[in-house]
Specification:
Elements lengths: L2 H4 L6 H6 L3 E8 L2 E2 L5 E11 L5 E8 L14 E9 L4 E10 L6 E12 L6 E13 L1
Parallel strand pairs: 2-8
Antiparallel strand pairs: 1-3, 3-6, 4-5, 4-7, 7-8
């Protein structure tokens, strides 16, 4: 019997750091991007909380320098704060990815990380990372 058991609280941090907390799905619509032109695709990110506890959740999207998360092409990293996801809850987020005249015909890696936090967004408990490839033709 621990000290926290006296006050009716239980420590779930060991369970949450041991297992994967999220199921991530990534979809690109359309699945290709036009090279050397101003064009865009939508990255659809699905986040499912598969743990038994509610989790404070954020998503981080990283793309290469030749692409942009805004029309000017200056932003390559975006953090999206989803708030608290209840156990078994799912959310979908759409992120638009832009090409420009400096985008060559190639395959570009996209990295999406779902992060579970405790207290506030400054403290990281666990994370799940998934990669996708965006083709520019």
């Amino acid at each position: 019997m621990g000290l926290l058991d006296l006050f009716g609280k239980r420590d779930v941090s060991a369970e949450l750091t041991r297992k994967v907390p999220y199921a991530l799905t990534l979809q690109l619509h359309p699945y290709r991007l036009s090279a050397n032109r101003n064009d865009s695709v939508v990255l659809k990110i699905g986040v499912d909380n598969i743990s038994k506890e509610p989790l404070l959740t954020s998503i981080v999207v990283k793309i290469p320098k030749k692409l942009g998360l805004d029309q000017t092409g200056l932003q390559q990293v975006r953090e999206i704060r989803l708030g608290e996801l209840a156990n078994g809850d799912a959310k979908t987020v759409n992120v638009e990815i832009f090409s420009s005249t400096k985008t060559d015909a190639a395959e570009y890696p996209i990295e999406v990380t779902a992060i579970s936090h405790y207290r506030n967004y400054a403290y990281v408990l666990n994370s799940e990372r998934k990669k996708a490839v965006l083709r520019a033709v």
